[in-house]
Each structure stands twice: as structure tokens, then as C-alpha cells.
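Hi,

Apologies if this is the wrong queue. I'm a grad student, and the batch job for Metalloregulator ArsR/SmtB family transcription factor from Enorma phocaeensis produced an output file that my downstream script rejects. I'm not sure whether the problem is my script or the file. Here is the sequence I used:
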Amino acid sequence: MSSLPVVAFVCTHNACRSQIAEAVARTWAGDALSPCSAGTHPAKHINPDALRVLRDRFGIDASSQKPKPLGELPRVDVLVTMGCGVSCPALPARHREDWGLEDPTGNGDEAFLATADMIVERTLDLKERIQAGCLDGSVELTRQLTARRLKALADPTRLHVIQLLSQQGELCACKLLPHLGVGQPTLSHHMTLLCREGLVIPRKEGRWTHYRLNRYAFAALRDMLPACLPD
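Support response: The file is valid. Your script probably expects a header line. Output copied below for reference.
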């Protein structure tokens, strides 16, 4: 049996945000937590747009996931509600938090993508806190994450990658290579570092991986840096 803490993502219908969170957490934080999801009033099926965006934009196949009632959850260590006013008084957990995410249903792919990117950022933050044994977070943890991200950016090739992705949106490795003057193994090393820190989000398609910036990671950097700089 896994010794990883069980993290349950809960919303009303368990058809969209909580399902995206379960899939994203399994992909980005599966070495630190065991994710699951449920709904207070579960739908019959997962929102097909959520499944499609996970598949097409993240390369994640979540077709085996199903909406579930709270009663089917295992013993929960961390309860994350998604921002729909859900209250789960009968579901004990040693830590609870709300991510305050709007439901993207009916608002197009960009809304789904923005929600999923925010979930990636929140998941990486939760992973950091779980691994540090500090679920409530701390200023020091935020500094450590910021320092690691700045270190990941402190390389001319990686800064060039960030510039290209900022200008072009999503690019596959084959499109990045001609601009960088490095080989495939070196590019893979750089991209692994950027992805590990959540600055870049990868998507596998065939033999190539496509990359795009995580706008929320850079927003967090912008928010943190002014507090560190003197007037």
C-alpha cells in the first residue's frame, strides 16, 4: 500500500475541475501524493471538453477516470475544494484548502487551458508543501521555490527558450533546435529543468514533445521579486 498522502480534489459534480486536478496531480506530483477526486452531487460523465483538453494540450489520457460520490473516496489526508462553495463536513482530513477556481464549462478551450495551467501551478505548490512537511506553507518555502526557478532561468540557452515560447506560443523540440545551436540531448536537459520547476509545460505527441510557458509560474515570480528588491 502506498505511503504517500492521499489528496482528494472535490467539487459539486466531479466532472471538470476536480477531474482535471486529479489527472494533473497524478502527472506532475505522483511521486509526492496519491490523488483522487469526487463530487458532492456527481455527474454521470466527465465533461468531454475537460478530457479533450487534457489529451490534446497536456498529452494526458484521463478516460479511465469517472465521477464518484464522496463515499467512494479512500481515507483522505488533504482535502482540496475547487472553488464552488462545496462544504464537506462529513469528510475528515488533516488539512483542507480551497483553490477558488472558476468552472470553465461552456467558456471554450482557452478557459479550460487557463484553469488547467493554474491547477498545474497549485499542484506544484502543494507538492512542495507536502515534501517539506509544511502544508500551511511559509515565506521560506516560497523563497526556495523562487530561487530554484531563478536558477533554472539563469542560463542563456534556457532564457532563449523562454523568449521563443513567449513569442511563438507552443513549440515542439524540432522547432526550438534550429534557433539554439545545441543538440537534442542538450535541449532535453534544459527542458527537463524548466519543466521540473513548472516554468514550462510539456505535451508529448509522437516522438516529439511540445512545450509552452506556464503563465502562472511567471506571474508568481513577478509577484515575489518586488518584495525581494530594495527601493
